[in-house]
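So, can you check?
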Amino acid sequence: MPSPAGLSSPSAVNRRRFLKFSVGGSAALVAAPTLASWLAAADAKAATAALPFVDDYKTNVMANLTPETNAVVRALGGFAKVWKTGGAWNTGTPLRPDILRANVRYCVAVTRARTEAQGREAFVYDRQHQSYSTIAGLGPLADLYKAGAKAVTSITAAPDGVPATKIDDAVPADAPAGSALGAGSYASDLGLVAKLVDTVRGPFASGNPGKYAFQYPRPWRMNENSEVVDTGKTDALGFPVYDSQVVVVPQLLRQRSSSPTDDGGFPSGHTNAFHLASLAYAYAVPERFQELVTRALQLSHTRIVSGMHSTVDVLGGRIMATALAAATLADPANAELKAAARAQALAYFTEKTGTTADTLFAYAHSDADDEYADREANARAVAPRLTYVLPREGRKEPLTVPKGAEVLLETRQPYLTAAQRREVLRTTALPSGYVMLDGFEQWGRLNLFAAADGYGAFDRDVTVTLDAAKGGFQAADAWRNDIAGEGGLTKRGSGTLTLTGHNRYHGGTVVEAGVLVAGHANALGQGDVRLTGGTLRAGEPVRVCGAWAQGAGAVLDLTLRGHHGPALTVSGRVRLDRGSVLSLRLDADRPPAAGTTVPVIAASALRGQFDRVELDCAHLRAVPVYTAHGLSVRLLRR
């Protein structure tokens, strides 16, 4: 990487211990200790005086290397509490030696334990265009995307041993005409999506200003004490040998920079690129939102596996990418492009797969061989990569979601208002106390994997409206988190919302229209349930901790299973108004037998009766049997 315009040469920095950079277009000399103090102390002043990141992201250029002048350096300010930048690349001071020692130890352990296959994979993702690498997160749609976007790569495998020369990605000679690296060609069927990816990864998305500002060395240049110790020796390629136990992948040894001053580790540029591309694809193809986030974190981890970056580098790359993606997508100048890219992707994939907006999600998750098919496995992989070696310290502090961050969920949860999407981000965020994540605006606390699964808490009453006529996520969605809080949920609109978490919200549940599906025994929280309209459906037995009230026209849709308890258990009283409906279906695997009496509702007390009891079975009819404490049905042959 060449030296940036306006920066003095490495030799001049070491000789004079000054950092030269451009301020407002004029050259200035700033003493290195002053720069270090700015990074450590000016963050507080910047936090109160600076513009929100989304309004200031275009300051991320090489002329601006302080938190007061650069929005990215400011957003990464949590690292200034861990590392004090020195006057040169090898003179910094660990402010949190425990964290930085753990950082290097982690890198040593990972690089020494990696398999040859993992090393080869790390090489591929180091040299392959990052926007291309991320496409695999599209799962069953990935090959269709590559064909439609004319996206290609020349890096598909690792060579044996150390290559003779440096290797870079290029359009293969045998690629179809019009092919392009990265996200693909603008002159393709998915050209607007490719352009959106490139726009999110645009001229203000570089990690280089951060690298020069923080001057934190690569892990293979540091020892366990986070110090740079040059042994005075060189390896077979002529690189200095440092007192480090981090093992770089052999195939990447020649890719290392020979200029340490121009080769900072923090933040990781590859990680930044992986997440930027991932979030751009996720905006255009939200049917794979969560899997693309998982993919970005997995690819970022290969930076540690390769020996080229450390955990703090990777965390920094994720933080800046989250903020930069939000800023670019929230920029009014890109409003037309992002909407057109989403529309183009939806039209292309529904045509190629023979699906509709309502069925594309199912197709996008239909491949059993999909690397990201298992959501729980994805969650287990994601969780430790959000914090790595950082300890959690201090008391719990609330999060104010950064301005504009809600745009990241705009296509994934289009039925929510901007304010509601901010609540989703707030209630699913990581807790406070992770020093690097608690910087300016706390972008590092956002957990986009969890946010894709809806609210983490109802801290106030939530009303959600889904419209079946609009299709896609506007017609149907699932909230998979375990929802806490003192608020309640009101479901409106003709669409379907599914709750699959073990929910503990206390404010009650109201169904006014459409369908609310209880996908867990405790999906309905710990309050009362009222059905004033629409349908509440449960395929498995469900519990209600409060009372149950069902009005005229409202439908309770339950599945009956043989040799099982009640389909609905209510701790409080049940009130059934005239005109209410009970719709029953038999479990496909273990249906109750004809002639048996099956418990349906158990409650502390029951008042009223259903106007109709329907059974979805051509050969049986359900005869209701009411008691003071519940309802059973006797299944008789027609």
